[in-house]
Each structure stands twice: as structure tokens, then as C-alpha cells.
């Protein structure tokens, strides 16, 4: 391009024309003015093309500095040097196309011109008699080093001192251009660096492509902001809606009104709660990613400053939005992980329970995070807080939630039943559940259990607890390890059931409760306290609104149906007999189901082994016997209850080893008129039931129901429920599933 030596051909030609005594400053000034006065035709092709591509007639100095890849303060100094015609202190903010072209043409000029331009830029003065001073050199490079992070303060100071020495400014206060020019022209390092003080085609940023990239960046920015805001609006709705799905007292009210429960699908509120929770997690992730990408695109602050400080003043409360977003994301992550199915179903319910209490700080931070969220949450949150206050009031009020345990029954299987003194003002429906707290087991923990006793049994509430979790194991250990002396001290009767006995409890299944409560006022001392929250409703409340009900329980999932069977037994007794005389029962009803919509009842119970059947066999025996006595006196009446028991233990499947046992069962059953395993007249089936065959019998036999009459209720493992639900859809039966 140009020789690196100052003694170029241009200087030789200039020396031939100009007097030899003329100072270098004057000669180079003439060259500079000549370059500034040249027409566009003399400009380089690159400069002309660049100027032609500019869409705007004027550009700001900041934009020019960005396009030419030059620091803004240098661009500002050059503009003032070349184009401040009246006053060198004149402030110039914009340059037109012609001025931009002249600036590029000058910077593409000879080495001599570039040396003068650099001198003027350092001096920051257009005066021909100016000098380069110690202060001006330091000021220039200190400003230049200001945005460079590759040099620390000590190295910057060291570099400036070396430059001062090179230009003899460590010994002098100032030098003129001639001395400056002499140093530059005789120093190989300066000569090597001076060509970089130019604008070449490889450095120039195409203005249209830059505008395009700027537009692309702004478009991307707008898209990110739009995505974040859309997710934010959806989060406002879903974070308030998820509370509405867990308003338990409101759900009880809806279930109590047939019209409301048809309009509002409250039976799926737990599943819907989980779906909305997952949706909140997805929206929060997208919302966070969009904001982080947006922060990364801004140049004013670093990403860490945006996220972890309040410097950017983002949000409606003191710039707290990004930082509160980080806290919200951490809380949500903890809640999502701790609510995974493998944690809830592996016996670690307390992890799920305690982590879900993080909803309290979550909503506090969410109100601080989002400007308009309070408008969405005020309704559901107000109802939720009212329900909580009501729950706290009833929980610790005698006659409502504070009570004690009367007796404990430890079955041979991994189940234990607690008979709890029923508070005076405690009312519930068959199939309802409660949350109980045993302070001597775990002071703060509440765990949900279905009530297995009937509402008509006014003196007590019974719950069955399977030994399949940390807390439930503690309950089992607490009562199994309780000594007789400790039981007497806390006035608890402890019984052990036996599957072979006709009566699990002494003097009948209910006699000991009546005996205890008849003398309750005479008993004093320290009770085994229990606190009750609830009751809370379930879909089992719809049983008495159906014509043909099929109750299917798997394992401990039978407990809500035990309450229903007990209630039916109590209602049957209260409606259909007057008194017992020795072994005779005298009925006054002409029909078993008069004035009742429920006409047929099939009870199906699946258990892996026979020990689990002991939980409610006495109840089934009594109901079976009661029905037989009634039908014997009323032969024209239909059977109301059919019992179907299935033992799914693979060791008891049909094979060579079990053939003798099956032979004994089939021979003995007709003679004994009862099943040898359970003592029921209904036979025990082995293996998994064929739902298709069972359901087909409901609608194909004589006096069978229509598909519209049948309602199937299930409580147990979800994998079994899915198979039953598929068959219900094929047979067009209504399907309800208990979910906790």
C-alpha cells in the first residue's frame, strides 16, 4: 500500500515543489488540506461504496465509531479537528455522508498525514501552534486504556511512562510536532504501528449488514421479551388456579350438590393439580430461559449483574425481580423433585409434605416478583386462608378435631386399626377421609387416611393404617411395643385379630366400644391424644346416587368401601327389623330397597395374600348373614349384595403343587357351606380377575342392569385402575377412582 518509511515518493515530489526550508509540519498540513479538499472521484473505491450504502444522510459519532471500529472519543476528537471550522471547542454530534467520506479518505492517506492526524488526536487541538504535552499524552492513553480489561492499573501506568520516555516527555513538559515527527520517523516500532491508524476494507463494517444485524438483534430481543411475558401471564393464571384445585372445603361443598359436581369435575382435582404443577414447571423454565437470553443480549450490564443484583432496577419493587426469580426457581425445583411419584410412594411422605409447605415463601416471593400477580391470587388465596383458619379452629377445638384413641387392633397382616373417640360435633359421609396427627409419634406431621367406620356409628371413628411408610412404621412400632402398664395409663384397649375367628373382638365387634363409651365419663387419666383435620370428601359420596354400584378395592384401598358397607348395614338394620328374639329377627319392611335408589351392590376385593382379608371379614360375614336371614323371610326379594374375593398370590395359582389344596376347598365348601379360607359363603377366587367377564355378567344375566345403571368405584394401585377404566369405557360404565 504505502512504504513504511516516511521518505516516500510523495514526500520526494513534495520536496521538489516546496522550499526545502519549510518545516515538516507545514508540508504535511498542506497534504492534509489537499486530502480534505479532494472530490469524491479521488476517493478510494471502498470509501465511495461505503458512503453510497449509507441509508441515512447523517450518522451520530457513536454510530460512526461502531461502523469504523474506532473508539468513540477518538472519533469525536477527529471530527472536531477536521470539521469544527469556527471553534475547536465546538461540540459535534453528527457527521453527514460527505464528512464521513473525507474522514475515511484522510485515514487512508500517506503515513505523514496519519502521523499528523495522530498528533492532533493526542493533542485534541486544531491549532497549528499546539504542542504535545506530558499531560495530554497521559490523558489520551488513560482514556484509551479505560475500557481495556487486559491491562491492570500498574501495567497501564508502566506503559504510559515508557511512552513519555520515548517522546522525551519525562524530561520536558512539552514537545512540538517537529520533535514528535523526528521520534516517529526514526523509531521502527512507531513506523510499524502507524499503518494500523487507518481504515481498510477488511475493517469497515457494512452499514446495511450492521443495520440488518442490529434489526435482527432487536427482533430477537422483542421475541425473547414476548416469550417471557406470555409465560409470565400464563404463570399468573396457573399459580392462582393450582390453589383453587386444593380448596378442600370448597370441594366438599361442590360434591354435596349434584348439579355443581356435574358442572365442575372435582373428582379429578388431584390429577389436575399435578398436571398444572408440571405446566408451571415448564412455563417457569421457558420464562427463565427467555429472560437470561435477553440479559445476555444487553451490553449495558453483565449477565451476573442482571440476575444476582438489583442494579438494573428490574421489576416493580426496588429491582428485585431477577433476584426473586432465582429464589422462586430454587423453591419450585425443590417442590417438583420432592413431589415425584417415587418419593411419595416409597414411604417418604414427610419429604413430600414438608417440601410442599414451601408454597408459603413461594407465593410471597411471587407477589414481590410479578407486578400484577396479586390481582390473580387475591380471590383463591382469600378462600384458601379462610379454609386454613377454619381448619386450625376445628383442629384444636374439643368437639371438633381434638380427641383421643380408645382402642387399637393389630391384625396379623401389616395393618393396624385405630378406634378414635368421635368428637361430639364431628360429622362425615361414607368414604370421606381425614388427616390425623399423633403427637407421641410425630408432633408436627399430619397424614391422610380414609374413615373405615360408618357415620351411623356415633361413638367412634375407625381408620386402618398399612405398614408401608416411615410414619406408619413408627405408628406400628409405637402400639406394638406399648406395654400393658402403658396402655392402662393411657386408657387404650389393645386387641389382636385372628382371621379364623368369627369375632375379632371380644363380645362382638362393637360391644367393647359401647362399653367403653358408656363408662367414658368415669374414666380419668392421660389419654393417647389425636388431632383430626377434616373430614374431606371423595367420589365415594356418589355411591348412594347410583342404581347398581360396583366397589373394587385393592389391598388397603378397601377402607373407603368398608365405611360404605358399614353404613349400609346400619341403615339396613335401622330400617328393616324391629328386634331380635333369641335367634329370630322380625322384619317390618316389604322390600329391601324401598325408598332407595341403590338397588344392587357388588363388592370386589383383591389381595395378594389371605392375611390381608382379615381386616373386614367380620363385617362381610355379618352383612352376608343379615342378607340371608332377610331373604329367607322374603324369598321374592332380589339379592342386594354380592361379594367377590380374589387372592392374587402367584404361589396359589393353579398348578401341581396347589392341586390338593384346591381339591380340599371344592370338597369342603359344599359341606361346610362356606369358604374354608375366609368363612364366607362367597367363594375365594385365585389369580387376577378378568374384568371383561365380570362386567359382562352385570349386564347379561337375568334381571341384569343396563350399562347406564352401573357405576364402578375403584381404590388401589393406579396400574389396576387403568385396566378397570379401559373396560368401563368399553362397557360404557361410569368410572370413579379414589385418589390421594
Automatic annotation (TrEMBL):
<dbReference type="InterPro" id="IPR013112">
    <property type="entry name" value="FAD-bd_8"/>
</dbReference>
<keyword id="KW-1133">Transmembrane helix</keyword>
<feature type="transmembrane region" description="Helical">
    <location>
        <begin position="275"/>
        <end position="296"/>
    </location>
</feature>
<dbReference type="InterPro" id="IPR000778">
    <property type="entry name" value="Cyt_b245_heavy_chain"/>
</dbReference>
<dbReference type="InterPro" id="IPR017938">
    <property type="entry name" value="Riboflavin_synthase-like_b-brl"/>
</dbReference>
<dbReference type="GO" id="GO:0043020">
    <property type="term" value="C:NADPH oxidase complex"/>
</dbReference>
<keyword id="KW-0521">NADP</keyword>
<dbReference type="GO" id="GO:0016175">
    <property type="term" value="F:superoxide-generating NAD(P)H oxidase activity"/>
</dbReference>
<keyword id="KW-0560">Oxidoreductase</keyword>
<dbReference type="GO" id="GO:0042554">
    <property type="term" value="P:superoxide anion generation"/>
</dbReference>
<keyword id="KW-0812">Transmembrane</keyword>
<feature type="transmembrane region" description="Helical">
    <location>
        <begin position="316"/>
        <end position="339"/>
    </location>
</feature>
<dbReference type="GO" id="GO:0006952">
    <property type="term" value="P:defense response"/>
</dbReference>
<dbReference type="InterPro" id="IPR011992">
    <property type="entry name" value="EF-hand-dom_pair"/>
</dbReference>
<keyword id="KW-0285">Flavoprotein</keyword>
<feature type="transmembrane region" description="Helical">
    <location>
        <begin position="351"/>
        <end position="370"/>
    </location>
</feature>
<keyword id="KW-0274">FAD</keyword>
<dbReference type="InterPro" id="IPR017927">
    <property type="entry name" value="FAD-bd_FR_type"/>
</dbReference>
<dbReference type="InterPro" id="IPR013121">
    <property type="entry name" value="Fe_red_NAD-bd_6"/>
</dbReference>
<keyword id="KW-0472">Membrane</keyword>
<dbReference type="Pfam" id="PF08022">
    <property type="entry name" value="FAD_binding_8"/>
</dbReference>
<dbReference type="Pfam" id="PF08030">
    <property type="entry name" value="NAD_binding_6"/>
</dbReference>
<feature type="domain" description="FAD-binding FR-type">
    <location>
        <begin position="392"/>
        <end position="516"/>
    </location>
</feature>
<dbReference type="InterPro" id="IPR039261">
    <property type="entry name" value="FNR_nucleotide-bd"/>
</dbReference>
<dbReference type="Pfam" id="PF01794">
    <property type="entry name" value="Ferric_reduct"/>
</dbReference>
<dbReference type="InterPro" id="IPR013130">
    <property type="entry name" value="Fe3_Rdtase_TM_dom"/>
</dbReference>
<feature type="transmembrane region" description="Helical">
    <location>
        <begin position="226"/>
        <end position="254"/>
    </location>
</feature>
<protein>
    <recommendedName>
        <fullName>FAD-binding FR-type domain-containing protein</fullName>
    </recommendedName>
</protein>
<dbReference type="InterPro" id="IPR050369">
    <property type="entry name" value="RBOH/FRE"/>
</dbReference>
